[in-house]
Specification:
There is one protein chain. Helices cover about 45% and strands about 30% of the residues. The protein is built from three helices and five strands; from the N terminus they run H-H-E-E-E-E-E-H. A hairpin with a 3-residue loop joins strand 1 and strand 2. It is elongated, with a radius of gyration of 19 Å.
């Protein structure tokens, strides 16, 4: 499902316009992004939790030359599914 398909589904199921649904979707995504940038978790009980994971610096290999390259430490967003979401998908 794409963002546009999700917006259309939200608009249809709630009876709001696509413009309003787009605004709601963008506000949601901005809110999650802002909190993750601050290093905070965003939790939705039963659905899941968005958080940041820290990856340590490591040495990798260039697949073409085999030369060692330094891969710097970084932070990546992570989503962990909640219990109800996991159960719904398993059925």
């Amino acid at each position: 499902m794409t963002k546009d398909e999700m917006i259309a589904m939200i608009a249809q199921s709630t009876g709001i316009t696509k413009g309003q649904a787009t605004s709601a979707m963008l506000t949601f995504m901005e809110g999650v992004t802002t909190q993750l940038k601050k290093g905070k978790k965003v939790s939705f009980t039963g659905f899941g939790t968005f958080s940041i994971s820290k990856k340590k610096a490591r040495t990798g290999r260039n697949p073409q030359t085999g030369a060692a390259i330094a891969i710097p430490a970084t932070k990546v967003p992570v989503f962990r599914a909640g219990k109800r979401l996991k159960e719904a998908v398993r059925k």
